Amino acid sequence: MTTTVPPASSGPAPAPFRHELYPYRGDQEFLSGTLGFIHEALEGGEAVVVAVPSAKTALLRDELAGEGAVTFIDAATAGPNPGRLVDAWATWLKESGPGDRPVRGIGETAWRQARNPAHLAELRYHEWLLNRAFARSSTWSMLCPYDDADQDPEALAAISRCHPLIRRDDKNAPNQDYLAGEDYAFETLAGPRDLSFELRYTHGDLALIRSKVSSSASEAGVAQDRLGRLAVAVTEIATNSIRHGGGHGTLRTWTQDATFLCEFRDAGYISDVMAGRIRPTAEQIGGRGLWLAHQLCDLVEIRSIRDQGTIVRLHMDAEQ
Questions:
Q1: To which CATH superfamily is domain 18-174 assigned?
Q2: What fold characterizes domain 195-317?
Q3: Rounded average pLDDT over 228-248
Q4: Chain region(s) in the chain for CATH 3.40.50.300
Q5: What does the H/E/C string look like for the chain?
Q6: Is residue 8 very low, low, confident or very high in pLDDT (cuts 50, 70, 90)?
């Protein structure tokens, strides 16, 4: 099933958020591109936030000799779910650029540490969503180093389609591969190998849903201290499904590659591609279910098509 997200809403032209892909090979090319980006920022009075793998952090710290305008972030604090990263970047940049001071970010995703194909696909989707999340922000730009050591043209092309600009030789240029003005094409959701159970649910079935999921997850090896987190996420998604998805839906669970999966299908439609990825405000009414699911689960996949319905898959790691 290949689905797309709706195009950006019409309105005034957005401010120029600069989102650059920087393909490199080896430590020297990494340093050359990132240091050039950082020195451009410092010369322009901008702050810099860096979230790259620890080995690359060490390389940059050695070169920058304690430069105070550069803040290093441990991206692992956001957890394994790429659905948390948009809000994490918003927080890191706000804290590092007080007032209207422009900020540059350097974020290298740990592509080769992706846990499975679904996780890799969500990492790519996160990169594409950054263009939507910060489209109207002129106060910062972001460089995304990508280690092309294995020279896989298909992998590079897939990531390139998420970045409007590409950096080479310390200069950026429009990226011809970028999906400008196009909808995002998701990878097909793989079906379950061995279905644990399937349940049609409706009003009044929340207790049954929690019980069935908890039992199935426990049998799959989900640790006891994680079952409570899963129960909260399941309750939130099931409640949203019943409330906004026509009053009923279908629940399926299964285990695959040491991961417990819990899938909800209903007739609803989620129009906001950022749903669940931005922290709800204290005054906000509703809109917390998907946010909580992203915070509690190791991965959340959402596929929603107008007039066809919505699929939400919750992933929770099981003990190996």
A1: P-loop containing nucleotide triphosphate hydrolases (3.40.50.300)
A2: Heat Shock Protein 90 (3.30.565)
A3: 95
A4: 18-174
A5: CCCECCCCCCCCCCCCCEEEEEEECHHHHHHHHHHHHHHHHHHCCCEEEEECCHHHHHHHHHHHCCCCCEEECCHHHHCCCHHHHHHHHHHHHHHHCCCCCCEEEEECCCHHHCCCHHHHHHHHHHHHHHHHHCCCCCCEEEEEEEECCCCCHHHHHHHHCCCCEEEECCEEEECCCCCCCCCCECCCCCCCCCEEEEEEEECCCHHHHHHHHHHHHHHHCCCHHHHHHHHHHHHHHHHHHHHHCCCEEEEEEEEECCEEEEEEEECCCCCCCCCCCCCCCCCCCCCCHHHHHHHHCCEEEEEEECCCEEEEEEEEECCC
A6: very low
- The pLDDT tens digits for 82-92 are 999 999 998 88
Report pLDDT for 282: 78
Q: Give start-end residues of each CATH 3.30.565.10 domain in the chain.
A: 195-317
Confidence at residue 316, expressed as pLDDT on a 0 to 100 scale: 97
In terms of pTM, does the model score above 0.85? Answer: yes
> Of the candidates 76, 90, 11, which has an alpha carbon nearest to the alpha carbon of residue 281?
90
Confidence of residue 320 (pLDDT cuts 50, 70, 90): low
Residue in the structure block whose two tokens are 């009923």: 248
Average pLDDT over residues 115-140: 87
Contact 145, 108 (CB under 8 A): yes
Distance between CA atoms of residues 119 and 22, nearest Å: 22
Cα(87)–Cα(133) distance, integer angstroms? 9
The rounded mean pLDDT for the chain is: 89
Give 77's pLDDT tier (boundaries 50, 70, 90): confident
